[in-house]
Design a protein that fits this description.
108 residues, alpha+beta, two-stranded parallel ribbon, 4 helices, 55% helix
Length: 108
């Protein structure tokens, strides 16, 4: 059971010692995005990340507000691109899709 002293200590840590949650991370497997063309693979990567992570930043901010502890970074972790890129052209297309998905979802 949490007592008043522990609550006050936590508030003090947040205010004076700048306690925060450094990062929340959503892990996404991209293996099901592999396709025969780099462009199609990149589009599937973009679509999947945007679909799954569209609310990540908002939910992180809500959690931060609910508990009163700042969450510094909201990020996404994905399958290593070397495992789904297929060839050198695939890496560039997927990198562009990742950048756009990060921008569109608002993650760090």
């Amino acid at each position: 059971m949490i007592n008043k002293k522990e609550i006050l200590e936590t508030i003090q840590m947040i205010e004076s010692q700048h306690l925060d949650v450094r990062t929340i991370t959503m892990a996404i497997s991209l293996f099901d995005c592999i396709d025969s063309s780099p462009k199609s693979t990149a589009q599937k990567v973009y679509d999947k990340i945007c679909r799954l992570a569209q609310n990540l930043v908002a939910v992180g901010n809500d959690i931060s507000s609910d508990y009163g502890i700042p969450i510094v970074n909201k990020r996404i972790s994905v399958t290593p691109i070397s495992l789904i890129g297929a060839n050198n052209l695939g890496y560039l297309e997927i990198a562009k899709a990742l950048d756009k998905a990060a921008e569109d979802t608002g993650v760090d």
